[in-house]
Structure formats: structure tokens, C-alpha cells
Amino acid sequence: MAVTYFRNMLNLHRCKVVFSFILVLFSTVAIAQKDQKISGKNLPNYDNRKMHYGFYLGATASRFNVDYSDEYIQRLQVADSSGLRAANPKTTPGFTLGFVLSRQLGDYFTIRFLPGVGFYNRQIEFEDNGELVNQEVPSTTVHLPFLFKYMSKRRQNTRMYFVAGVTPSIDMGGSKRGERIDNKLRVDKNNFQIEYGVGVDLFYPFFKFAPEIRVAHGVPNILITDNNPYSRSFQNLRTTTVTLYLNFE
After folding, report:
1. 139 contacts 120 by C-beta, under 8 angstroms
2. Among candidates 135, 97, 95, which has minimal Cα distance to 119?
């Protein structure tokens, strides 16, 4: 029951973050549609070029998705409150930045390569003898996303789109599996994510601005199993990240 409660609370918090990002996106679209009524068509020959370049900035909300171990379940069933008990992943902010390389594949498709760096500090809060202990897992991660972009028909200076693809990544300060650190939660430096999202292209006289919301789900179990109660609380540890990107091309 306790595990189900924790997961429901985390899912509710994630939904709030996603909903807030969606409000920002559609507010931007509404402003752009209002502006285009009084402006002409910007960058009319933009799609005639095969290659496009730019950069992006992003604000992230990330957390661990966890599968608890049998040992953790047994600890919750013990009547007394001594020792390590509750383990709750927390949603934490971060940011990312990088470059945009986009190749036109027709009127409605492009393939995009978006190398960049993300800065995260994912956390799990443990209850240890009645006190709260934060296990922080900071990371400086190099991302290499390959995404397909499907675009709607352009209407004046606005165009909606969807993106989906895969992202291999490596944490430049991550742990090696052969290392040993006492009483510290550790994760593998290599990760692989599936990403999908939605955005809108807004054409201005000299550049294209594209706010975009993207969700990334880690596929592999990145937990490094150590002989300490923090690590032994879990069977699997995966990442989930929601990011609001601001693309400039």
C-alpha cells in the first residue's frame, strides 16, 4: 500500500509539471496567431533550403522511476521505525543547451541531430531512523538525440509539429561499475532514452523560433548495485525527463 501511494504521488506531480509546460506552449501559440494578423509572411523560402542550423536552450524537470526491491518491501512491513525505510524519488529542475542540425526530407518531414549538454541533480529522499536523508545524483550529461519531425502545413507564420526519436547519452562525471563508494546511491554513466514531443514553429523576419515540449524515458536499468541500504532498496532505476525547449534556427 505504501509503495502504491508513493508512486501515485509522483505520477500526480509529474502530471502537474507536464500540464504547466503545455499551458506555456499554447499561450505562446495564441500570442503568435494574434501577431500574424498584422504581419506578412516571414522567411517565405525557409523550407526551400535542405539544411538548417541553430541552437537551443531548455528547462528540465527530471526524476528517477524506480522498482522497489523485496528488501525494501520487507522493511516497510516491520512495525518499528528504526533503520532505513521510505524511499521517495523527487522531481528536480535542471537545464540543457546545445545545437540544432536539421535536414529537410520533404514538405512535412525533417531529421534532426541535436547534440547538447544537460545539467541535472536527481534526488531520492530516504527516511533513516525518523530523519530525512537526501541521496543526490548530480550529472553533467552529453546527449546525442536523433529525432524525426513531422510538420503540419504552414499557416502564415505558424506551423505545429511532432517529434520522436532516440537519445544515447553519457554522464561525463558518472560512476564506473568497478568503483566502490560507501553509503552512496550510484548510477551507470551510460543511458539510452526514447523521446517524443510537440512544438510550434514561429517564423520571424530573421529567424525561426520554436518552443517545444519533449518527454524522455530511459530504457535501461542504470542502477549500480552496491552493498548498502540505499542501493539495495531498488531493483531497477530509470530516468524520466520533461523539458521545455526554446529552439532558434
Report:
1. yes
2. 95
Whole-angstrom distance, CA of residue 88 vs CA of residue 110: 40
Which helix (H) or strand (E) segment holds residue 168: the answer is strand 158-171
Q: What are the Cα distances from residue 149, in Å, to 103, 160, 198, 211, 223?
A: 10, 10, 9, 14, 32
How far is 205 from 61, CA to CA, in rounded Å? 32
Helix (H, G, I), strand (E, B) or coil at 119: strand
Model pTM score: 0.80
Report helix, strand and coil shares of the chain as percent, to nearest 5: 20, 55, 25
The pair phi, psi for residue 50, each rounded to 5°, is -75, -35
Contact 58, 243 (CB under 8 A): yes
Q: Which amino acid is at 63?
A: R
Q: For residue 68, what are the contacts with CB-CB under 8 A and spacing of at least 6?
A: 3, 87, 233, 234, 235
The single-letter DSSP state of residue 230 is T
Q: Is 214 exposed, middle or buried (0-12, 13-18, 19+ CB in 10 A)?
A: buried
10-residue stretch averages of pLDDT, the chain, 249 residues long:
39 47 51 53 88 96 93 77 78 96 93 97 87 89 97 94 97 67 84 97 95 97 89 93 97
Q: Is 128 exposed, middle or buried (0-12, 13-18, 19+ CB in 10 A)?
A: middle
